[in-house]
Amino acid sequence: xxxxxxxxxxxxxxxxxxxxxxxxxxxxxxxxxxxxxxxxxxxxxxxxxxxxxxxxxxxxxxxxxxxxxxxxxxxxxxxxxxxxxxxxxxxxxxxxxxxxxxxxxxxxxxxxxxxxxxxxxxxxxxxxxxxxxxxxxxxxxxxxxxxxxxxxxxxxxxxxxxxxxxxxxxxxxxxxxxxxxxxxxxxxxxxxxxxxxxxxxxxxxxxxxxxxxxxxxxxxxxxxxxxxxxxxxxxxxxxxxxxxxxxxxxxxxxxxxxxxxxxxxxxxxxxxxxxxxxxxxxxxxxxxxxxxxxxxxxxxxxxxxxxxxxxxxxxxxxxxxxxxxxxxxxx
Length: 331
Description:
The chain is of the alpha+beta class. The protein is 39% helix and 25% strand. It contains 11 helices and 12 strands. The strands form 3 sheets. Strands 3, 4, 5, 6, 7 and 8 form a 6-stranded mixed sheet that branches. The protein has a 4-stranded antiparallel sheet with strand order 10-11-9-12. The longest helix is centred in the C-terminal third of the chain and has 17 residues, at 309-325. It is elongated and about 75 Å long. The relative contact order is 0.07. The model is unreliable at 1-7 and 138-148 (pLDDT under 50).
């Protein structure tokens, strides 16, 4: 179906027009007008402008416009948002277990950075300092943001880079209620399946962790903030990983499941021991039993909680709830 986009200014439309004709030659003036949502007169003016600027346009025998083979666009210029998106994408690629992908991702990231204007490059460098992907895993398949998270990442990243206060409505699952918070965004962290915001919470007078998929409304204010003296995102995450609120957990995995589970463990693995008969026992600390229980259920009988008893109970209760949903309540 043709795309109608009247929001493009003339420069953007000319650039998009070249890309379109290079990828879909033999488009008529009517096709192009329908695609961009403008009049044929506007398309004719655009084509004349391109021709005068040196783009080798021709009218093909098939009845449409095309660009002579071999024409190359000038070096690409990225907006701050486009560059941030590309560099986060290369960051996810670097989490993959294939070493060649990680090497290629480094090379791509370097090339992208080298073509950025200095103000955009400085902005991206600042943003990368405040973004951590999979802090407890060296390699991990990158998942996708949930529908509730879409659109929030970039708005929060801009607020972080520009040190702007954010006002948000946040859903607190444990109390089943929404609260309004003003926070100073200090970092964005991607775990196994979701993004989290690390921010100074004015309401609690403390640095807190907020899931993006629980943010219901978000507005960036004009007020600026100064990060806490000496704050380092990675150091903060390391300290949080040894928080007194954490619970020590030991889980036994079948080796075939552990090959995949090790990429998703939501914490640093303290100990990994083969225990025979095709099983591996791992120990780690984490604060949220319900989250770990939900994660373990995806491995079915290929994972068994050894300790603590509270985690065994939580897994059993969640499994029972699934069984009840399907009418298969265990005796």
